[in-house]
Amino acid sequence: MGHGSGAVLPRLDGVTVEHGVAGEDHRAILLARTLTELEIAEPRDWEQSPSRYVLSTLKRWIALHGGESIQAEFALDATLSNTPDRYSSEDISQARLYLTVDPESAGYIVIGPTLEMLSRIHRQLPVNF
After folding, report:
1. I want to staple 22 with a disulfide (CB 3.0 to 4.6 A). Which of 49, 59, 87, 92 is the partner?
2. DSSP label at 95?
3. Splitting the chain (129 residues) into consecutive groups of 10 residues, what average pLDDT does each group show?
4. How far is CA 97 from CA 31, 59, 76, 107, in A?
5. Helix 26-37 to helix 50-64 angle, to the nearest 10 degrees?
6. 4, 6, 62, 92, 122 from 86: Cα distances, Å
7. Alpha-carbon distance values, 69 to 23, 40, 62, 64, 106 (Å)
8. How many CB atoms lie within 10 A of CB 28?
9. Phi, psi torsion values for 49, nearest 5 degrees
10. What is the pLDDT of residue 120?
11. Are the beta carbons of 93 and 81 closer than 8 angstroms?
12. If we measure between CA atoms, which residue out of 50, 32, 49 comes closest to residue 41?
């Protein structure tokens, strides 16, 4: 058998060889794009889909902004959705995206003494609280 032409196929080291199609809501794509443009999200956080990218970004941002302290005090659940109530059957607005933060547990205070203490600091504090 004769020798070939000696052509060598290029190597794909470091190049992604598998891609997937994400049939996701365009709002997740727009949010991912906006977070990247605002330099909140980092391209290195990309994980296969816009919603995973947003989740990775939020996890990193929370970790950089006191996440350990928050996690030590109470459990927190965050949801990104197109409806404020996940069990709602109301017509969903295509123009809105909601971030819902729900603490599974939280501390409490006795309101009367707290408001009195705040009013001694500044008369508007109880109203703002």
Report:
1. 49
2. T
3. 65 69 69 88 80 83 80 68 65 66 69 90 86
4. 9, 18, 19, 29
5. 40
6. 63, 61, 23, 10, 39
7. 36, 21, 10, 11, 13
8. 20
9. -155, 160
10. 93
11. no
12. 32
Given its phi and psi angles, is residue 96 left (phi above 0), alpha (psi -120 to 50 degrees) or beta?
A: beta
- Residue type at position 57: T
- One-letter-per-residue 3-state SS of the chain: CCCCCCCCCCCCCCCCCCCCCCCCCHHHHHHHHHHHHCCCCCHHHCECEHHHHHHHHHHHHHHHCCHHHHHHHCCEEEEEECCCCCCCCCCCCCCCCEEEEEECCCCCCCHHHHHHHHHHHCCCHHHHC
Amino acid at 46: W
| The pLDDT value given to residue 32 | 85
Residue where the block lists tokens 């729900």: 102
Helix ranges, 3-107 (H)? 26-37, 50-64, 67-73
End-to-end CA distance of the chain: 87
**Cα 90 to Cα 81: distance, rounded to the nearest angstrom:** 14
Residues 6+ apart with CB under 8 A from 61: 40
